[in-house]
Amino acid sequence: MKILVLTAHPDLNKSRINRSWFEAFAETDDITVLDLTRVGGPTMSFNVEEQQQLLLSHDRIVFQFPFYWYSAPPVLKAWQDQVLTYGFAYGPGGKKLVGRELVLAISTGGPEDSYHA
Ligand SMILES: Cc1cc2nc3c(=O)[nH]c(=O)nc-3n(C[C@H](O)[C@H](O)[C@H](O)COP(=O)(O)O)c2cc1C
Predict the structure, then answer these.
(1) Bridge partner list, 103
(2) Given this structure, which CATH class describes domain 3-115?
(3) Which atom of ligand 1 is nearest to the CA of 106?
(4) Fewer CB in a 10 Å sphere around the end CB: N or C, the chain?
(5) Secondary structure of residue 94 in the 3-state scheme
(6) CA dist., res. 53 & res. 48, Å (int)
(7) Which residues of the chain register pLDDT less than 70?
(8) C-alpha distances out from residue 42 to 62, 108, 112, Å
């Protein structure tokens, strides 16, 4: 199985958890790992065709990020808005990702009891 990990951390140099995951993934066969902050640059702009081809050539897509205000850092939203386009991920003909697995790998800082009912 080919795995694509999209790492969405604003600054991996200042990260403890996501950087260690990123480095471990980078050393693992069959895993492609992208630092979205580096790829998108300061304007968070993505080459849509290139990103879509990457999605199509992998079986499992992993969104890896630190939990920020019960959500994801903005670079992941920018990537989603630009890459998951009409006719590709939704709308007529937009079933290109059907059959792929989606995994969320999320680090948190809150204590365990923040995540109880
Ligand atoms: C802006 C911001 C918002 C955060 N919001 C949450 C949150 O809602 N829940 C939580 O458990 N931790 C929250 N945290 C803590 C981060 O999830 C935690 O620092 C991060 O997962 C650690 O990973 P890292 O070492 O890769 O940076 C927040 C941290 C920041 C900077």
Answers:
(1) 62
(2) alpha beta
(3) 21
(4) C
(5) coil
(6) 9
(7) none
(8) 23, 25, 34
Is there an atom of ligand 1 within 6 Å of 9 CB?
Answer: yes
Question: Of how many residues is the chain composed?
Answer: 117
Using one digit for the tens of pLDDT, what is the confidence trace for 42-62? Answer: 999 999 999 999 999 999 999
Gap from CA of 95 to ligand 1 centroid (Å) = 33
Which atom of ligand 1 lies nearest, measured to the CA of 19? 26
Spatial CA neighbour of 31 closest among 54, 15, 12: 54
CA 12 from chain centre, in angstroms, equals: 14
**Cβ of 10 less than 6 Å from ligand 1:** no
Task: Give the residue extent of every domain in the chain.
Answer: 3-115
